[in-house]
Specification:
CATH topology of the largest domain: Rossmann fold
Number of helices: 16
GO molecular function: methenyltetrahydrofolate cyclohydrolase activity; methylenetetrahydrofolate dehydrogenase (NADP+) activity
Strand content: 15-25%
Keywords: Hydrolase, Multifunctional enzyme, NADP, One-carbon metabolism, Oxidoreductase, Photorespiration
Bound molecules: 5,10-Methenyltetrahydrofolate
Low-confidence stretches: 1-5, 35-44, 48-56, 71-135
Helix content: 40-55%
Shape: globular
CATH superfamily of the largest domain: Leucine Dehydrogenase, chain A, domain 1
Structural class: alpha/beta
CATH class of the largest domain: Alpha Beta
Mean pLDDT: 79
CATH architecture of the largest domain: 3-Layer(aba) Sandwich
Largest sheet: 6 strands, parallel
Radius of gyration: 24 Å
Strand order of the largest sheet: 4-14-11-10-8-9
Catalytic activity: (6R)-5,10-methenyltetrahydrofolate + H2O = (6R)-10-formyltetrahydrofolate + H(+); (6R)-5,10-methylene-5,6,7,8-tetrahydrofolate + NADP(+) = (6R)-5,10-methenyltetrahydrofolate + NADPH
Number of domains: 3
Subunit structure: Homodimer.
Protein name: Methenyltetrahydrofolate cyclohydrolase, Methylenetetrahydrofolate dehydrogenase (NADP(+))
């Protein structure tokens, strides 16, 4: 089986007057004829965008593509309309050079292969054509975006070092020996090293006192080489989380958990010092995939202080119409089914089923839930809150777990640490 891709630039579409439906239809049909040597045919029609395509254009191309594939003799034809844009395309150099050579392309033999070229898809339901119950929701690649961001941050940090001789520093306090916390802290340290942030780590025993933690925080508050302080949560139950978090001075609270910070986040016309990392990472993913937020219906599942609540505030700041669904919500699926964008942060494996999702919705899965799996080396594997298997058949774009929001959380922590150092040292 072959995958064919026909890709247009917006400017070409304009020049060829292809935006008039029949012209486009004829044009695509021409390609279809020349490219269809056998009946077992699969096509992806890509549209290269200079800017976000207008909805009516989308609908038009959608219709033309459907016309072609319904008028074809092959019953096994599959048509998908995908949107590509310039910023995403440069990450697929081979794909692009092939596109330049010809407008058609042979891909591998199975649909997983074709996934590799899926770089961007509009959140509009009109953008995804489904035939044969086939699905290819865009996989929002958090791991890749996080890597891009780390590279951007590394450049900024070396500039900072050169201009004012300052290297940003991040202090992490870890209490107890939860395995998952230890893993995150290790990942954070690795990420700091990769961009040139100095990291300072304090590990305290599970039975340490709150006072000890407060002492360390106080020292870091006063240490000019430390620009960000993070107390890894959850803390042991004998400690008062509020007391501890309140002790971190707001200028170094790179988690953005300080109440004053959340207050500013909630108010119009005010700016928080730091946007909490996980929600910031979610929005950054939407931005980097050119997924529009303004005027969209967004549903946040979960109302935690560290993800759900600030995520809802951020979406509102981006002009979405926001609803929050939580453990006491009656018929949550009725509400999520109305959403153009869903951010789920509840910690329940596979809770959000395919039937909860509106066709074409964009899904951001914050949940990182271990489920037992004897076939995995660690004895467990990680799954999200969203049933990926089902939801990816309905959505237009979805974040995987792992490799979605998780790496973005860490990238945003680095970004906040850099921001803090710049602010403290009055750099641009
Ligand atoms: N003060 C504080 N700030 C936090 O930001 C904070 C915290 N406490 N406590 C715990 C949660 C959780 N968290 C994660 C960060 C990265 C991954 C991550 O990179 N996950 C990888 C998988 C990692 C693995 O394989 O175990 C992924 O999703 O691809 C996950 C979870 C930050 N948190």
């Amino acid at each position: 089986m072959f995958v064919y891709v026909v890709m247009y630039r917006t400017s070409t579409l304009m020049r060829l007057r292809l935006l008039e439906q029949n012209f486009l239809y004829e044009h695509l049909r021409h390609y279809y004829k020349t490219l269809n040597p056998n009946s077992n045919f699969r096509a992806i029609i890509g549209l290269r965008l200079q800017s976000i395509c207008k909805l009516h254009t989308m609908a038009l191309i959608d219709t033309a593509a459907t016309m072609i594939f319904t008028s074809s003799s092959s019953s096994s034809s599959t048509a998908r309309l995908l949107l590509f844009n310039n910023t995403k395309l440069h990450k697929f150099p081979n794909t692009i050079s092939n596109f330049r050579r010809s407008t058609s392309l042979h891909f591998g033999t199975s649909s997983p292969t074709s996934r590799t070229i899926v770089t961007h898809c509009s959140s509009s339901p009109a953008s995804a054509i489904q035939v044969n119950n086939e699905t290819l929701a865009t996989v929002i690649d958090g791991k890749r975006v996080a890597k891009d961001i780390r590279e951007e941050i590394a450049v900024e940090i070396s500039r900072m070092k050169e201009e004012i001789g300052i290297v940003p520093g991040l202090a992490v306090i870890l209490v107890g020996d939860r395995k998952d916390s230890a893993t995150y802290v290790r990942n954070k340290k690795k990420a700091c090293d990769s961009v040139g942030i100095n990291s300072y780590e304090v590990r305290l025993a599970e039975d340490s006192t709150e006072e000890e933690v407060l002492n360390h925080i106080s020292k870091f508050n006063d240490d000019p080489s430390v620009h960000g302080i993070l107390v890894q949560l959850p803390l042991p139950s004998h400690m008062n989380e509020q007391n501890v978090l309140n002790a971190v001075c707001i200028e170094k609270d790179v988690d953005g958990f300080h109440p004053l910070n959340i207050g500013r986040l909630a108010m119009r016309g005010r700016e928080p010092l730091f946007v909490p990392c996980t929600p910031k990472g979610c929005i950054e993913l939407l931005h980097r995939y050119d997924i529009p937020i303004k005027g969209k219906r967004a549903v946040v599942i979960g109302r935690s202080n560290i993800v759900g609540m600030p995520a809802a505030l951020l979406l509102q700041r981006e002009d979405a119409t926001v609803s929050i669904v939580h453990s006491r919500t009656k018929n949550p699926e009725e509400i999520t089914r109305q959403a153009d964008i869903i951010i789920s942060a509840v910690g329940q494996p596979n809770m959000v089923r395919g039937s909860w999702v509106k066709p074409g919705a964009v899904l951001i899965d914050v949940g990182i839930n271990p489920v037992e799996d004897p076939e995995c080396a660690r004895g467990y594997r990680l799954v999200g809150d969203i049933c990926y298997e089902e939801a990816s058949k309905v959505a237009s774009a979805i974040t995987p777990v792992p490799g979605g929001v998780g790496p973005m959380t860490i990238a945003m922590l680095l970004s906040n640490t850099l921001l803090s150092a710049k602010r403290i040292h009055n750099l641009r």
